[in-house]
Amino acid sequence: MPLFEEAMAIPVGEAPVSLDGATIRRCGEKIVLLAPQLAEVLVNGRPLAAGIRVLAHRDQIRAGAESWWFSAEDTPCVAPFPGAAGDVCPRCRGHIDVQSPAVRCACGNWFHQIAERPCFDYAAACPVCGRRTALDGVAAFSPED
Ligand SMILES: [Zn+2]
Ligand SMILES: [Zn+2]
């Protein structure tokens, strides 16, 4: 479907995201899409009933001529490994030192991400779940999943 090629996944953090005619913001635990009643905003092909909708992972949003995918997953980033001594990296099967730089995939697995062992982005996909491993701030989810 050609629509998918143009669609971008939207990871939503703390800050509101503005789309063409709509806003996505965090509301407590939920992420909501707000659009004025007359705006041409569709979610999964349907107009918003009351100008507001709680978004679910993989919802498709269309505003004007553009479309996006909503991703509820965090984007992967390097963080000090918070796990326990003895936890193993799925890529190299080596232990990950507590507090050493590591990346958590959206599937929950942690990988080394140090100069000698860039295990997370060593290959284009996670060996466990197949999600992309680029550390470019873009959501790992894609509509083809
Ligand atoms: Zn590793
Ligand atoms: Zn994974």
Helix-strand string: HEEEEEEEEEEEE
Summing up helix and strand content along with how strands pair, one would put the structural category as mainly beta
Please identify, by name, the CATH architecture of the largest domain. Answer: Sandwich
Overall tally of domains: 2
Beta percentage is 25-35%
Distinct small molecules: zinc ion
Stretches where pLDDT falls below 50 for ≥5 residues? 1-6
What attributes does this structure have?
four-stranded antiparallel β-sheet, about 30% strand, elongated, Herpes Virus-1, Tumour Suppressor Smad4, 2 domains, 1 helix, binds zinc ion, about 140 residues
Please characterize this protein's 3D structure:
3% of the residues lie in helices and 32% in strands. It is mostly beta strands and 145 residues long. Strands 1-9-8-5-6 form a 5-stranded mixed sheet. The protein has a 4-stranded antiparallel sheet with strand order 2-3-4-7, with no helix packed on it. A 3-stranded antiparallel sheet has the order 10-11-12, with no helix packed on it. β3 and β4 form a beta hairpin. The longest helix has 5 residues. It is elongated. One zinc ion (ZN) binds next to β12.
Gist?
The protein has 1 helix and 12 strands; from the N terminus they run αββββββββββββ.
Chain-wise SSE layout:
Elements: H1 2-6, E1 8-11, E2 17-19, E3 22-27, E4 30-34, E5 41-43, E6 46-47, E7 52-54, E8 60-63, E9 66-71, E10 78-80, E11 101-104, E12 110-112
Parallel strand pairs: 1-9
Antiparallel strand pairs: 2-3, 3-4, 4-7, 5-6, 5-8, 8-9, 10-11, 11-12
Bound molecules: zinc ion (2 copies).
